[in-house]
Write a structure and sequence with these properties.
413 residues, alpha/beta, 17 helices, 38% helix, globular
């Protein structure tokens, strides 16, 4: 069953973020309220759990945004409703309108605020490159704090999450940002820059230099849900990257959602992606960086990252001269690497990632066998609580020993 549907409401935006994946030249009309409600009805019928209002422009500029969110909340069938916004238009009136949308016992409503940059230069270079108005950064910060104060005063439950895109260019700014927001907001989420866009070259060179085995996981966004564009095109996946790749499977002006989901085109594409059948999957997926995942596709929360950051920062626990092999590709490793990313320059830090290896067939995967030479010359850190013994036993058979990441952090102070 489909978990999530992203509904893009408009194309218009009041910012011009440097990194934005969207085509700013689209002058197409925004979605009509009727079409938007129809999409919500379809989603409810299809048993979808999560509705995400986001997509193609700035959601708060859509004149009927409150009406369509309230419509979705009042259906009382969705578990989560999320609204993505840059918060520039989150003025007092908009705050009041949003806070008047009442959550209920079934539906949780969350506001995701996309604001990268504490330092003015960072904010402007990421989100306001033409310096249209140098007060934008302050406006956004003020709006978000006003929203939270009002929410608290009125004891409304809507959760507020702020979202930072972490890249080489802004990692010096990231901790100041977290320190500013950490006690003010419900959660800080850190994501990476979609590597497919504007950083592709440097991304590839980093991969070649540092990684032993990067092609770890195949895309599974199509399994989570579809994206409905303002023009009612249905795209096969709900990942933001698909707004660029455009793997179109139908259009809701001509078909219902269940017709699209039951169509041969959708099913064939789905099956081809599932089986990694290169001949038959949407051609645009072959150019999409998300077809393969690697640890650069991080989404972590600051609260979970904090312990790593504190450990690394306070005790200088990683020795830059040490050569390390990391085992494991799960959440722990992602947090760990994000923490490293903030504290060190990854490119100066000599490490390899080994997701899986033949001896022991870790996690039933049969990827490359790491050469003994690589293992012999490195300290081996196992980033997995669950598989620690399995991995270590297999390493022992190769004549080397791994240590658990938490022991490593506490020992090497
Ligand atoms: C395209 S925006 C649309 C909604 C709204 N205008 C906003 O910025 O939140 C949806 C999300 O995509 C993210 N995004 C856009 N381009 C990106 C990129 N190249 N890498 C990572 N995230 C990106 C934005 O930060 C935002 O959180
Ligand atoms: S990321 Fe959001 S705010 Fe920034 S340009 Fe794209 S749509 Fe607009
Ligand atoms: S490969 Fe890219 S465009 Fe294709 S389904 Fe995955 S995320 Fe979407």
């Amino acid at each position: 069953m489909m978990k999530a549907i992203t509904i893009g409401v408009n194309y218009k935006c009041n910012l011009n973020c440097t990194f934005c994946v969207l085509d700013k030249n689209i002058k197409a009309a925004e979605i009509s309220v009727d079409d938007c409600k129809k999409n919500i009805d379809y989603a409810a019928q299809a048993g979808v759990e999560t509705i995400i209002f986001s997509g193609y422009g700035e959601t708060l500029l859509y004149p009927d945004i409150i009406e369509v969110i309230a419509y979705a909340v009042n259906k009382r069938v969705f578990k989560n409703i999320s609204l993505y916004t840059n918060a520039l238009a989150l003025d007092e009136q908009m705050t009041e309108n949003l806070l008047n949308i009442e959550e209920n016992d079934v539906t949780r409503f969350r506001l995701f605020i996309s604001a990268t940059g504490y330092d003015y230069n960072v904010y402007n270079s990421f989100q306001n490159p033409y310096y249209k108005d140098v007060t934008f950064r302050d406006k956004v910060y003020k709006n978000v704090q006003y929203f939270i104060n009002q929410r608290n005063q009125n004891k409304v439950k809507i959760r507020a999450v702020i979202k930072y895109i972490l890249a080489d260019e802004n990692k010096h700014d990231f901790l100041d940002y977290c320190r500013f927001w950490e006690d003010k907001i419900d959660e800080i989420i850190i994501t990476s820059l979609y590597p497919a866009f504007n950083q592709l070259q440097s991304f590839k060179s980093i991969v070649d230099k540092n990684y032993y085995n990067t092609k770890m996981t195949l895309c599974s966004f199509f399994k989570t849900g579809v994206d409905i564009a303002p023009n009612q095109d249905v795209l096969i996946c709900c990942n933001g990257a698909c707004a660029v790749a455009k793997p179109i499977v139908g259009n809701l002006k001509k078909q219902t959602l269940s017709e699209v989901l039951n169509s041969k085109k959708y099913k064939d594409y789905y099956k081809a992606l599932e089986e990694f059948d290169v001949e038959n999957m949407p051609k645009c997926c072959l150019d999409c960086e998300f077809l393969f995942f690697n640890e650069y596709n991080i989404v972590v929360t600051y609260s979970s990252l904090k312990q790593y950051l504190e450990g690394l920062l306070n005790n200088k626990k990683i020795d830059k001269n040490e050569k390390i092999a990391f085992f494991g590709a799960g959440v722990i490793l992602k947090r760990f690497l994000t923490a490293l990313d903030v504290v060190y320059d990854k490119r100066l830090f000599d490490y390899v990632i080994i997701d899986s290896f033949k001896e022991g067939r870790f996690a039933n995967k049969d990827i490359q066998k790491p050469s003994k030479v690589i293992l012999d010359e490195r300290k081996i850190i196992i980033c997995s609580d669950t598989y620690f013994d399995d991995i270590n036993n297999s390493l022992n058979k190769l004549g080397v020993e791994g240590i658990l990441y938490s022991n490593y952090l506490s020992k090497s102070a």
